[in-house]
Amino acid sequence: MARKDTAAEAANPGRLKQIALTYKMTRRADKKIGLVLAAVGIVTFGVFLAIGFLIGHPIYLGILGLLLAFLATAIVFGRRAERAAFGQMEGQPGAAAAVLDNIGRGWTTTPAVAMNRSQDVVHRAVGKAGIVLVAEGNPNRVKSLLAAEKKKMNRIVADVPVHDLIVGTGEGQVELKKLRTTMLKLPRVLTGPQVTATNDRLRALGDLMSNMPLPKGPMPKGMRLPKGGGPKAR
After folding, report:
1. Which residue ranges traverse the bilayer (predicted)?
2. What's CA 30's distance to the chain center, in Å?
3. By CB count within 10 A, which of 78, 110, 200, 232 is most buried?
4. How far apart (Å, rounded) are the C-alpha atoms in residues 94 and 183?
């Protein structure tokens, strides 16, 4: 019991510190976040307290209003923090890889399976929807990368559907903030064992990550591939 209490006490400051850090990061992009959260909390609590006085139960409704005010504030904070985070990541090399890495259970992601010297990148995700190739970079350049990678996928795993997406704000592209939702909406056509078998077959191919270490998430802007860099099939 003592160990559990100690662990809980150690965890709470960590969570509070994380929340504070998230708030500071959000406030850099959303200057009104403090006023918005205060307004949501006060209005929610005020409405329930007023109803409590009207029906003769201000204490009960006040407590309920306080709890719901906290919940509403947390929801609004989470959404605005997510929006601010995507806004800061938009356009940065490797941003799509960071989103794919947090897409959720059932997906296996491999960042940078293909890349050119201009830092245009193709990432791969495998799930029950099949194989999803996600490209980020110049729309004209990534098309050739996608075509080459899709051809390789069709040759190795011809029985698995291959989808391709380009992250961006142009026509026919998927915004970074909508990438996860778009992928989760793809029809599920594979079973669990089929997903595992597909991953095993693709793992045998190798990828760019096995030949050159890359940072997780957005990559440094000054980073360049060495001559001859590129995906190699084994």
Report:
1. 33-53, 59-78
2. 19
3. 110
4. 17
Q: Where are the alpha helices (DSSP H) in the chain?
A: 2-29, 33-55, 58-89, 95-101, 139-156, 179-184, 192-203, 208-211
Contact 175, 151 (CB under 8 A): no
Tokens of 106: 């059932």
Q: Are 97 and 111 in contact (CB under 8 A)?
A: yes
Number of other CB atoms surrounding residue 53 within 10 Å? 11
Q: Which candidate, 7, 36, 168, 180, places its Cα nearest to that of 104? A: 180
Structure tokens belonging to residue 39: 């307004």
- Which residue's structure tokens are 């006085």? 53
Helix (H, G, I), strand (E, B) or coil at 213: coil
Instruction: Please tell me the distance from the alpha carbon of residue 109 to that of residue 59, in angstroms, as a whole number.
Output: 51
Look at 53-57, 120-124, 136-140 and tell me which has the smallest mean pLDDT: 136-140
| 3-state SS, residue 4 | helix
Separation CA 126–CA 144 (nearest Å): 21
Give the amino acid at 203. R
- Those residues whose C-beta lies under 8 Å from the C-beta of residue 149, and which sit 6 or more positions away, are 113, 114, 122, 124, 133, 231
Average pLDDT for 137-158: 86
Please indicate, yes or no, whether the overall pTM of this predicted structure exceeds 0.85.
no
Q: 3-class SS at 103?
A: coil
Residue 206 one-letter amino acid: G
Q: In angstroms, rounded to a whole number, what is the distance separating the alpha carbons of residues 61 and 139?
A: 55
Which tokens go with 198? 């597909």
